[in-house]
Amino acid sequence: MYIVALIQARLSSTRLPNKVIKEIVGKPMIEILLIRLSQSKEINQVLVATSNESENDKLQFLVESLGYKCTRGSENDVLDRFYESAKFISADVVVRITGDCPLVDSKLVDQCIQGYKEAKVDYFSNIDPATYPDGLDIEVMSFESIKRANDETDSEFDREHVTSYIRNSDSFSKASMKYTEDLSNQRWSVDEPEDLVVVTNIFEHFSPDIFFDWKQVLKLRKSQPMLFIENQHIKNNEGATMGTGQKLYKRAKKVIPGGNMLLSKRPEMFLPEKWPSYFSKSKGCKVWDLDGNEYIDMSIMGIGTNTLGYGHPEVDEAVMRSIKDGNMSTFNCPEEVYLAEKLVELHPWADMVRFARAGGEINSIAIRIARASTGRDKIAICGYHGWHDWYLSTNLNSDKNLDGHLLPGLQPNGVPRGLTGTTLPFNYNDIEQLEQLIKDNKGEIAAIKMEVSRNEGPKDGYLQKVRDLATENNIILIFDECTSGFRETFGGLHKKYNVEPDIAIFAKALGNGYAISACIGRQEFMQAAQQTFISSTFWTERIGPTAALKTLEVMEREKSWETITQIGSNISNQWQNLADKHDLTISTWGLPALSGYTFNSPNALSYKTLITQEMLKKSYLATNCVYACTEHKKELIDGYFAALDPIFTTIKQCEDGLDVNFLLEGPLCHSGFKRLN
Q: 534 and 353 in contact (C-beta within 8 Å)?
């Protein structure tokens, strides 16, 4: 009986890259594990099984320099890697050890092998059930069992986790070894940086001896518990249930403040601890995560950027041509002229255009122009207008000023105190409040900056009254159409209400997923851009303008704004019908193409979390809103509502007494954006 210990190891660990070669007491962790396993009296050979990825070349070199064999196989199909390695070495019995367990005890390994021999089973372990500390995991199995598993299972999970098929199948004989007490909550493996601290503490305590046994470690934990405190907050075996995206997000939070670049895309906004977080590809209204799982996006479609769907072939083709011909040059790209002319054509009241690449940028440009043109400092605002100092200064007087415009409690840390009182909030559809604001700051307001509409439309000629107030007081009227543009009209939403601003700004849908934003306005005001300094190198690349030109061409030909308005209205109506069917009360809101709903219940946030949780299981990205795109075809919407229906049944049961918190598999999602209008 030839017994081989196969050590599963690679350098591309998601949570702690290169962990198996991290040094502990002056030696790579894999070397310590190899040396400790070499003390086994039952194992005939120790072998490291790593992946074919080139980054593992240095791991193979290290292992072989230490006098051990190293085999290579599939990165993700670890089961096949194990089978081929065992076949290569002609193993009769395989002992599976993972490379992140340097505390594995050779005496404990021998006990497991002896248990396997005595039980005469296909599979023997000390992990099923788990009673030993995590990091002492030992699995012993026949070569024939590995071969059968490799032949029989097609499950990606089984092929990644090697022995799950054997453990969960009744067709294999199994036995296990249990400790006298349950120590499985103790964490002695190395998956996270905190784990490395703990294991290093242990080896440094016993140094230079590296052959101490696991019971000595147990005694150390009782006598010096502070050596083990660093990783106590980490859940054992969490990685087995986490997707690649979830693991990557944990890494991200260590190197990126907040975890990512956009609040609206944080997993916590959707489904904390469960959201896939990152995409590998997108097309139409489908998204694939890093594990290859396919989802239908019935949520925010790139935060409202892709009204034509992801990866529109004509837009992408135009962009690829521009890349092939060169995206950047000492010269200017001609596309910016063509795009400026097109936007002026769509808005005859406007004469001139400046471009940037993001909504926050273009908001700031518009404010700079307004202040330069009027010589005034103060800005009256209604709605959400980005993250820059001029806007966030609204909360310098009170951290509640922006509560209704964005998120409650935004702290203006880092914003100069000298900007206090320069940005003045007002409520949508409250003309008297705006009149009083102008009166209280007579001759000091440069611009009225507002979203045309978001959660409700103008009442009693509100927009025209705002227009009149601006004209009467020589105030520049700026419509922020970064979100609303090109959704109900071909151009700005203000065209629907026949009210012309002095300046309007666009972003999001303008480039169908490519970065482009525009500030358009009357010449008398826009010329002020020449009286100040507004400039950036990458505002001159050609991808953004190229994408925008082709996007506008497709929109105009297909009348996309009509399509997404109809789709959004239909979805909103079906939400209401579904609520009526289940005797639930909801409120629907938003532009038709940016529609959402809220349960009129104290448990509204819990229900939103439950919907996202359960719809994700059904391969839908879904929350309580849908940003419509032209790729949201009827059959997809029908499937979405068929999946949503039983969840509404459950929510009705919760309204009747069932505790929704028992149904949630993680924390509540964050409350999301709240806006004045």
A: no
Q: Domain check: are 74 and 209 in the same one?
A: yes
Which whole number is the average pLDDT over 565-590? 97
Same domain, 278 and 166: no
Which pLDDT band, with edges at 50, 70 and 90, does 239 fall under?
A: low
Do residues 202 and 283 both lie within one domain? no
The reported pTM is: 0.73
pLDDT at 675 over 50: no
Tell me the helix, strand and coil percentages in the chain, rounded to 5.
45, 15, 40
Quote the pLDDT of residue 674.
Answer: 44
Q: Is the CB of residue 202 less than 8 Å from the CB of residue 17?
A: no
List the one residue out of 3, 91, 95, 90 whose CA is nearest residue 42: 3
DSSP for 40-67 reads -SS-SEEEEEEESSGGGHHHHHHHHHTT
Q: What is the CATH number of the domain that holds 455?
A: 3.40.640.10
Contact yes or no for 356/519 (Cβ under 8 A): yes
Tell me the three state secondary structure of residue 445: strand
Alpha carbons 500 and 503: distance in angstroms, whole number: 9
The first and second tokens of residue 51, run together, are 């992946």
Structural domain span for residue 463: 350-500
- Map tokens 């507002």 to a residue: 450
Q: Provide the 3-class DSSP secondary structure of residue 551.
A: helix
Q: What would the two tokens of residue 243 be? A: 């997707």
Element (H, E) at 356: strand 352-356
Confidence label for 548 from pLDDT (cuts 50, 70 and 90): very high
Q: What residue spans of 169-274 are helical by DSSP H?
A: 193-206, 214-223, 238-241, 244-255
Distance CA 187, CA 202 (A): 12
Q: CA nearest 153: which of 143, 135, 142, 167?
A: 167
Q: Parallel, antiparallel, or unpaired: how do β-strands 286-289 and 279-283 relate? A: antiparallel
Asked, for residue 345, whether it belongs to a domain, the answer is no
- Cβ distance 177 to 71 under 8 Å? no
Amino acid at 555: M
Q: What is the DSSP letter of 186?
A: -
Q: How far is CA 278 from CA 86, 291, 403, 420, in A?
A: 35, 10, 29, 38
Among residues 254, 295, 188, 265, the alpha carbon closest in space to that of 14 is found at 254
